[in-house]
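Continuing the batch. This is chain 6 of the set; chains 1 through 5 are on the previous pages. Same settings as before, nothing changed between runs. Recording input and output for traceability.
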Amino acid sequence: MKQSKRILSCAVITALLLGITACEQETDPDSGSSVFVPATAATTPATTVDPDENAATDMEIKDLDTSLYTPDGNAGTVQYLGYYDIHSDQKGTEQCLIFESEQYGGKIEFSTCPSGDGYVERLSTLIAADESPDIVVQDVCRFPGTVSRNMFEPLDDYIDIYSPLWEDMSEVIESFAYKGKHYKVPHRITTSFALNYSKKTIEENNLPDPYELYMNGEWTWDAWRSMMQQFCDRDEGNMGFFATDTILTALISTTGVALVDAQPDGTIVCNISDPNVTRAMSFYETLCRDGVMNGKELSDWVSPQLFATNCDKLLFLGMEPEWTYTAATQEIQNKTGVENDVFDTVSDFAFVPFPRDVEADKYYQAYDVFGFAIPKGAKNIKGAVDMMNCFRVYEIDAQVAAQVREDHVNPATIYYTEGKYAGSRRWQIKWGEQEYDLWQEMRDGSKFEFLTEDGFGFNQTFWDNFGTVLNAVAFDGESWTQRSTEIAPLIEANLDEYRS
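Output for chain 6:
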């Protein structure tokens, strides 16, 4: 096995099938700008349009198995810096409640900051002022970008990645090692970009079911292209697929090659001229010539919410599937005021992985991880490690995993206990069993060979070099071969700053 982000042996599969994904944040870019998101698609927490709907509820806290990790109940206050509050994150709330219970004795104090490069800048300022937070989400711990700047504590003295609690993630964690140390210790595999669609739109246009094509092993580049051609032929206003520079990396990843491959020993390889990358982008150029691509007709960037109200015209949205499925459903079912909520209804939205490249030796998919890092100068490292262990225990507890699935496909009724909606029912998404089980399958290392795009592991300026070329092809119909050849020397020069 190549020592790279092509990882996930069968030893990891159990961990992939357990737990739920905590959402991150993606910022709607300014007009004409690319979306830079370290480590694939960052997503916005599934909050509602009415802030009061984040009031307290009667939701019960799950009990965690303590056989692999027994907390001492003295985690104390942990200062968390992030661009969203994990307390209000639909998929992180329970872990926070458990950490803040008597079992762990923790308290999370949240300080907000920008996402992307602004996150790095804010953290750097706090470290320099000896005001470091205790914990941050792994987005800011970029491999190899920020880990080379001495911004984080190595975690080898605090977490044994080969212990029973962490061993199923050890191969993943090792892939993010930097010169023999581990600074990023992910506790969860998450999905990256997928193709999101409306089942109603598929049915109304008499198109093949993408899910059935996938299950039958027929979901390929050509099948995808044919479906979009059929859809766009029905109406000149129809669009087959929306993509930005970051989303196009998911198509490239299906070839088994990433634009940038960074190794734990410091080796960094740029694959911008690799024949497989060129082949993927040449295929994309044919989609542009077919007239099936979105040319910013809806917006420079299409959010799940915008997709939800335009899915009759846009067949596929490339975006992280858990966030898109939840946010698109919420846009339709969870309007302002609980009296307008739609309960206990599975939406028409669905998703499939990016189609298989028939010329690749395996079914490759881009993937992501979720976890935390501890900045240099953290005052409560012990509490931060307790919090990391809490999230990991939640992830691998089999009883919790079974209940989490039930919470998704058959959620129990929850009522507000405070605020103006006290006594009213809180809206919750009701997942379709097909969508939930496919979401878990898309995190399964026995189904896919996973790849990480290390081009996201630097900064906005670095990614802009790639983004300029990718967007030129995506939106302006320019030649990938010509533009990538022009930019390759600049990218190589930028990478030389990080090569050891």
